[in-house]
Specification:
Length: 80
């Protein structure tokens, strides 16, 4: 089972500015797209579906919608 990865506008804007955006998208699909509760992620403020993880050195804040198999990235903080 895999989850679709979607990006909220602020995260999408950040992704567009990243040098290796294609590589990052592929890594997101390979890691959080396959297991959004794994890959070293942790719940934020005790909310099971509100998660934070590091992917290719970028901090990713996202929500998991299990009923529609979607991971929505709401904030993306890449390394400088």
């Amino acid at each position: 089972m895999s989850f679709r990865i979607s990006y909220a506008p602020p995260a999408d804007d950040t992704l567009a500015k990243m040098r290796e955006s294609g590589t990052f998208r592929d890594e997101m699909a390979r890691t959080l797209g396959r297991d959004p509760y794994g890959h070293g992620s942790s719940a934020v403020k005790s909310e099971h579906d509100r998660r934070e993880a590091t992917v290719l050195g970028a901090i990713v804040l996202y929500y998991v919608s299990g009923s529609v198999l979607t991971v929505t990235v709401v904030r993306l903080v890449p390394l400088p």
